[in-house]
Design brief:
- The chain has a domain of 193 residues: Ribosomal Protein S5, domain 2 (2-Layer Sandwich).
- The chain is 42% helix and 21% strand.
- It contains eleven helices and 13 strands.
- The chain binds alpha-D-galactopyranose.
């Protein structure tokens, strides 16, 4: 689906007039990967690809959903919400958590569809969950603020879909600001907007087309390994509440107390938390050259220490790195596939990206997709 107009028209065909329209964006993340659930900082931005919702109350006890892009629909009685399969779990998870928290909603008709590619690490699922919470809040006057909405969307993802994600994706979707990224402290949820001033360079995403699925267990496994590492440090000092309090030198000092995997995870997390703080400073100074170097470092850490990359993403990044005019590149999001994010010299972008795309295609027989990043405002009514 490519426009709100399309969503509105399709809604009319299914349910008639009277829908309210909402947009909920996907997100990119400039730096700070896999640290949102480890007490770190992140630098996401909402983008102009997302999900449109056409939605209205229907004075019944039934929620009717149409997933327009895949032409699937289903209905559920609000007093019989249960775990299902696939995309249905994202919307059912939202209804489940709202009910658990005693927010009263009535029946409604909802058609949604969008242009954010799925499984590409651009948070299509968070856009869906955050957008639904936002729309239901407006429809039934729940009185939620956007931080509460993000927390509900996160719990929704933990519940039926079962991915124990951090707060970054839904927070970014709900709080995005055009032309800016968000420096989010994932511990306190305090945030500030940093302008993305890209005069000579621009952000380009390359979708490896390796489909990533976070609910296949690897993401949750990383969370468990991180937790195991943290609990060791907590036995040393009970005041430690997150990796924020641990320096990488300390991790190195206690190396023998961990399995190689847990050691590597802890090392990566402590490095990435420091890196993101530095990156935010570089961004404030508009020092993109130094910022870009940190992106490459993050990729190495994600690939070698956190082990959430894959050979296709590694290849895209190494191709980027062999080019002087790509000053930063790394895999983005949960990993195991999806996109790389690249900081590319504007005047050379076309030729550079074409070269990367064709050598990737030659090597893996996959045609990657390229997206120029345009930031957007957070979830809103249209
Ligand atoms: C996924 C999760 C986020 C975050 C990223 C990695 O997108 O949903 O919470 O952990 O992976 O940074």
């Amino acid at each position: 689906m490519h426009s709100p107009q399309q969503a509105k028209e399709q809604y009319q065909l299914h349910f008639g007039e009277g829908a309210r329209m909402f947009f909920s964006p996907g997100r990119i993340n400039l730096l700070g990967e896999h640290v949102d659930y480890n007490g770190g900082f992140v630098l996401p931005a909402a983008i102009n690809k997302g999900i449109w919702f056409a939605i209205a109350a229907n004075n019944s006890n039934i929620a009717n959903f149409v997933a327009a892009d895949i032409e699937e629909s289903f209905s559920v009685e609000l007093n019989a919400i249960q775990k299902h399969t696939g995309w249905k779990n994202y919307v059912l998870g939202v209804l489940h958590i709202l009910q658990q928290k005693k927010f009263l909603i009535g029946g409604f008709n909802c058609l949604f569809g969008g242009n954010v590619p799925q499984g590409a690490g651009l948070s299509s699922s968070a856009a869906l969950e955050a957008g639904l919470v936002y729309a239901l809040d407006k429809l039934f006057n729940l009185g939620l603020n956007t931080q509460q909405m993000a927390l509900i969307a996160q719990e929704a993802e933990h519940s039926f879909p079962g991915t124990k994600c951090g707060i970054m994706d839904m927070f970014a979707s709900l709080h995005g600001k055009e032309g800016h990224c968000i420096l989010l402290d994932c511990q306190s949820l305090q945030y500030e907007y940093l302008p993305i001033i890209a005069t000579d360079y621009e952000l380009v995403l390359i979708n490896s087309k390796v489909h990533h699925s976070l609910s296949d267990g690897q993401y949750n496994k990383r969370r468990e390994e991180a937790k195991e590492g943290l609990s060791f440090f907590q036995t040393l000092n009970k005041n430690i509440t997150s990796f924020r309090a641990i320096r990488q030198e300390v991790v190195v000092q206690f190396k023998d107390n961990f399995s190689p995997e847990v050691y590597n995870r802890c090392l990566y997390i402590t490095q990435e938390i420091e890196r993101t703080k530095k990156a935010a400073e570089y961004l404030k100074e508009n020092n993109l050259i130094e910022f870009g170097k940190l992106m490459y470092q993050t990729h190495s850490g994600l690939s070698e220490l956190y082990e959430v990359s894959c050979k296709e993403l590694d290849y895209l990044v190494s191709e980027a790195n062999s080019n002087f005019d790509v000053i930063g590149s790394r895999m983005m999001g949960g990993g195991f596939g999806g996109c790389t994010i690249n900081l590319v010299a504007k005047n050379k972008r076309e030729i550079i990206i074409n070269n990367i795309v064709s050598s990737y295609q030659l090597k893996y027989d996959i045609q990657p997709e390229v997206y120029l990043v345009e930031t957007s405002n957070g979830t809103h009514e249209i």
